[in-house]
Amino acid sequence: MTDTVLLTARDLTKRFGDFTAVDGIDVEVHKGESFGFLGPNGAGKSSTMRMIGGVSPVTSGELSIFGLDPATHGPQIRARLGNCPQKDLLDEELSVQENLWVYGRFFGLSRKEVRERATELLEFAQLSERRGDKVEPLSGGMKRRLVIARSLINNPELLLLDEPTTGLDPQARHVLWDRLFRLKRQGVTLIITTHYMDEAEQLCDRLVVMDKGRIAAEGSPRDLIVRYSTREVVEVRFDTDDHSAHADSLGGIGERMEVLPDRILLYADDGDAAGSAVHSRELAPLSVLVRRSTLEDVFLHLTGRTLVD
Amino acid sequence: MVGYALWRFVLLRDVVAFRRMWWLFLSGFVEPVFYLFSIGIGLGALVQTVTTDQGMVVSYAAFVAPAMLAASAMNGAIADTTYNFFFKLRFAKTYDTMLATPARPWDIAVGEILWSLIRGGTYSAIFFLVALVMGFVESWWAVLAIPAALLIGAAFAAMGMWATTYMTSWKDFEFINLVIQPMFLFSATFFPLSVYPEALQWLVRLMPLYHGVEIQRGLLLGDVHWGLLVSAAYLAGLAGLGLWGASRRISQLLLT
Ligand SMILES: Nc1ncnc2c1ncn2[C@@H]1O[C@H](COP(=O)(O)OP(=O)(O)OP(=O)(O)O)[C@@H](O)[C@H]1O
Ligand SMILES: [Mg+2]
User: Fold this and answer.
1) SS3 of B170, please?
2) Residue A189 domain-assigned?
3) Is residue A192 domain-shared with residue A62, that is, in the same domain?
4) Which of B8, B96, B101 shows the shortest C-beta gap to A103?
């Protein structure tokens, strides 16, 4: 893999009136990489993706994609991008396959090429049987898959996926992850936004955690867990409405504690030892669960808030 | 080259979508035909002849027919670039998707105006045939009537589209009716310009439909004069202005 920079953002900012949605972020994405923006609602993920996709002008700062400035080379950039927006905008006056055909023509594909590509992609999206149907009655997950298929029609070098698996059932989600892995192996660079920690861990080589328009942390999923969490976590639940009352009784176990409304998290490198320590205090918890630490814990540590799905 | 004349595919999209709704084609041209029959022929039985502003004496129906041809071009054009355009712009979000491709706002404006011209032009052509069969076409100049109808359509399509970008709800379309209705009645459609007082005549001369009516009347009655070129230039200017304004507004609204 050659180490070419595909995307550079410096102090990238997006304002809507007085409101700053993206507040001076610096990002670099390399060719062949799979890069994630992880963050809660309103973090500025979609605003960033729309600037990268060349459909939203940059307020200030620098943005360069394929070495080109979207302000002056929007069409050239968009020609090489695949864009899967957060909202499933499909043309309801067209059939499933017509949605792909018409979209593909805008990228300079011939009639014959779009038909061949559409057949492949409908197979990929498991929508071959529905190809002649109207779009409107498709299920939410099918629409999502069609939007993803559409974003691939021009064989993009860089694929932008804004919450690709929202609305998909677990099985469809795993299928999609598998497809995205395959694209990545073919050398397609992926930029993904998600609220799902497991998705970020599965798909991203590198990610940034965004919160309130800023980047709170950057690294590989493993790095971030090592840096901002411990190896394991013990989740303790009590039969109570107020877990903070139990915080003191667990003092001194593990390296750090987070008190959530419905449970207490104890961060420890040796989860089993910490779990035994909890049991030895005879506090009669409802449950004690030892698990590996995830990006959710990183996010909690960085922002003091949980990520809600 | 990236993004060459991508308005072709905006047009393609409309053609593909419309294949399912071809019967909508009917609705657009019946209205002017009804006017021609009811007013042209009904009122014509009472009025018999009219003297045009150029001093020609013609039957009332032959006087009204070219005006209805101009009006059918107008109706056909604005049907697509107002209501349908508004729906696609604000609700169906058809253009948000197109703008994620190499297409530019300009391609959308051009593609949609051309589509409205295909529809509007078809209405005009059908109406023209009706007028021809009924004997209201008096001159070989009338071969230019369809190109003229397209010019009228382009002016109304582009200006209508530009106006529509400022609309935020269906209620706002009342404003379009508020402009179109009086224009339809006063643009020397049913009476020659000379019946109005001087001041009002100047107002009428500002109306785009008046220029459309002038051109069609000149062509169908064979009463061609240099003033028609001024009218054509006026309509072409409006078409260009509307196209410029609409492209700019699409960009402001969607590329946020
Ligand atoms: N066109 C707009 N006009 C005004 N404010 C906007 C616009 N688009 C986004 N915002 C605001 O910018 C902020 C960031 O929105 P954005 O959609 O980028 O967040 P997000 O991280 O994608 O959130 P989510 O996870 O909910 O999709 C929000 O507060 C939103 O209200
Ligand atoms: Mg979003």
Assistant:
1) helix
2) yes
3) yes
4) B101
Is residue A63 domain-resident?
yes
User: Model confidence at A189, in pLDDT bands (50, 70, 90)?
Assistant: very high
Q: Which residues contact A6 (CB under 8 A, 6 or more apart)?
A: A29, A30, A31, A33, A65, A66, A157, A158, A189
Residue A178 tokens, joined:
């598998």
Q: How far is CA A87 from CA A101, A113, A148, B158, in A?
A: 20, 27, 11, 30
Distance in angstroms (rounded) separating the CA atoms of residues A88 and A84: 8
* Residue A143's CATH number: 3.40.50.300
Which numbered ligand comes closest to the C-alpha of A18? 1
CA of A63 to the centre of ligand 2 (A): 19
- In this structure, the answer to whether residues A128 and A250 fall within a common structural domain is no
**Between A179 and A193, whose confidence is greater?**
A193
Cα B214–chain centre separation: 14
Q: Residue A1: what pLDDT?
A: 44
Judge if A124 and A235 occupy the same domain: no
What is the tens place of the pLDDT at every residue in B136-162? 898 999 999 999 999 999 999 999 999
Whether residue A30 is found in the same domain as residue A64? yes
CATH of the domain at A261: 3.30.70
Q: How far apart are the first and last CA of chain A?
A: 34
Residues from chain A that touch B112, judged by Cβ atoms under 8 A, are: none
pLDDT in tens, B6-17: 999 999 999 999
Q: How far apart are CA B69 and CA B31, in angstroms?
A: 11
Same domain, residue pair A205 and A64:
yes
Which residue reads 């506090």 in tokens?
A: A283
Q: What is the DSSP letter of A132?
A: T
Domains held by chain A: number = 2
Tens of pLDDT, residues A4-20: 999 999 999 999 999 99
State the average pLDDT for chain B.
91
| Gap between the Cα atoms of B242 and B235, Å rounded | 10
C-alpha to C-alpha distances, B211 to B87, B96, B241, nearest whole angstrom: 30, 36, 16
Are residues A128 and A237 located together in one domain of the fold?
no
Q: What pLDDT sits at residue A283?
A: 86
Q: How confident is residue B246, by pLDDT bands cut at 50, 70 and 90?
A: very high
> Of B96, B103, B254, which is closest to A106 when you measure between CB atoms?
B103
Provide mean pLDDT across the span A250-258. Answer: 89
Residues A275 and A211 in one domain: no
d(CA B115, CA B54): 35
CB distance A102 to A137 below 8 Å: no
Does the pLDDT of residue B252 top 50, yes or no?
yes
For residue A59, is it within any domain?
yes
Nearest atom (ligand 1) to Cα of A44 = 18
A309 in a domain, yes or no?
no
What's the pLDDT at A272? Answer: 92
Its domain, for residue A20, covers 5-219
Asked if B248 reaches chain A (Cβ–Cβ under 8 Å), the answer is no
Does A132 share its domain with A271? no
Mean pLDDT in residue range B198-219: 95
Distance A61 CA to ligand 2 centre (A): 21
Question: Whole-prediction pTM value?
Answer: 0.91
